[in-house]
Amino acid sequence: MPRAEPVVRDESAVREYILLGADGRPYPSRTPGAVGGHRRMKIYGRLDCPAALRALARGGYVTHRVFFADEPTAVAAGYRPCAVCSPDAYRRWRARQAG
């Protein structure tokens, strides 16, 4: 399962992050993810999303946290935009679901 903290294989080595790809499978990356998500709810959003930060502070979100390189990768993996931090993208997604 992807982790919020970087995986350090060797103290002298470059940090390695675990991200999800468009196929939903984890892969190692030397670059941290640009967007975060919730595995069970299949939602993605900004790393500074107020709703995600509140959930993380309560402690229930951490075990389901995933990261993506970018928004297109999150969408390709089947995740939807967060209504709190990405309201325009959420409205477009919602309109596509209704139509």
How many β strands by DSSP? 6
- What composes the largest sheet? 4 strands, mixed
Encode the helix/strand succession as letters.
Answer: EEEEHEHEH
Please state the overall shape, judged from the principal axes of the Cα atoms.
globular
Identify low-pLDDT runs. Answer: none
Q: Name the CATH architecture.
A: 3-Layer(aba) Sandwich
Describe the protein.
With 99 residues, the chain is of the alpha+beta class. The protein has one domain (17-98): 3-Layer(aba) Sandwich (DNA Methylphosphotriester Repair Domain), CATH 3.40.10. Helices cover 27% and strands 22% of the residues. The protein has three helices and six strands, in the order ββββαβαβα. It has helices spanning 50-58, 71-76, 87-98, and strands at residues 17-20, 26-29, 35-38, 43-46, 65-68, 80-81. The strands form two sheets. It has a four-stranded mixed beta sheet with strand order 5-3-4-6. A hairpin with a 5-residue loop joins strand 1 and strand 2 (26-29). The longest helix is centred in the C-terminal third of the chain and has 12 residues, at 87-98. The chain is globular, with a radius of gyration of 14 Å. It starts with 16 loop residues before the first strand and ends with a helix. The mean pLDDT is 88.
Quick structural gist:
By secondary structure, this protein is of the alpha+beta class.
Topology readout:
Blueprint: E1 17-20, E2 26-29, E3 35-38, E4 43-46, H1 50-58, E5 65-68, H2 71-76, E6 80-81, H3 87-98
Parallel strand pairs: 4-6
Antiparallel strand pairs: 1-2, 3-4, 3-5
